[in-house]
Amino acid sequence: MELKYVGPKPIISHTGIDFDNNKEDKFAYLNIAVQLLKALSHDYFENKVYKYDADTSRLRNSELIHELKKYCPDLDELMHIKNHNIEEEIQHNLDRAAESETLRDEDKQALKNNINIMHDYIVQRSINKSVYYCAIDSLAKLLQKDHIDYLIAPMFQKFAHVLHSVQGVLQKDEFEIDTKIEIYQEDGKLLVKLQVINN
């Protein structure tokens, strides 16, 4: 198992393979998630504002995995379990194609072939997504544990996506923390702010 970028979500049918460019591979956001984890992983003192200049240069895969293991110690096992789950999903889709009552035999075979062609791609996207959400859960736990009131980042698409993911996790049953995302301009720079209302 490894972490690597594959691409947007595939749309697989009996007529071919297309891609949904609105559903980016979560690997694209892992670098930013790790940057934020590194920025937040230290002791805090009350009423102090901390600044961290995020370096948007990409970490090498070995560095990325090394950093992720600090926050997701069961990373290898997680990647293996996710791989097993996606294999079941792929097999289910192959079975559905074979049992389809609306497709002709040659269309069923074309669909099965297209699913098989995209097998490794689908598996890798699933692993990337699983690892991404491990990092996002770790970010949410840090925000809660350290009673961090807000995070401000440049209003780049990847930062906004990661903060939105963190917001989603914080609002789930495990945390039930109120949050708000705000986009604003300061000193000519567009920024995104995730406000956390810790109780």
What percentage of the residues does DSSP assign to strands (E)? 15-25%
Helical segment tally?
Answer: 6
Helix content: 40-55%
Radius of gyration: 20 Å
Indicate the low-confidence ranges by residue numbers.
Answer: none
H and E string = EEHHHHHEHEE
The gross shape turns out to be elongated
Mean pLDDT reading: 89
Largest sheet: 3 strands, antiparallel
**Termini distance?**
40 Å
Question: What do these coordinates show?
Answer:
- With 199 residues, the protein is α+β, with helices and mostly antiparallel strands.
- It has a domain at 9-44 and 58-146.
- It is built from six helices and five strands.
- The strands form two sheets. The protein has a three-stranded antiparallel β-sheet, with helices on one face.
- Helix 1 (27-40) crosses helix 2 and helix 3 (75-99) packs antiparallel against helix 4 (105-117).
- The longest helix is centred in the middle third of the chain and has 27 residues, at 119-145.
- The protein is elongated.
- 23% of the residues are buried.
How would you sum up this structure in a few lines?
With 199 residues, the protein is α+β, with helices and mostly antiparallel strands. It has helices at 27-40, 61-71, 75-99, 105-117, 119-145, 157-170; strands at 9-13, 16-20, 150-154, 178-186, 189-197. The protein is elongated and about 70 Å long.
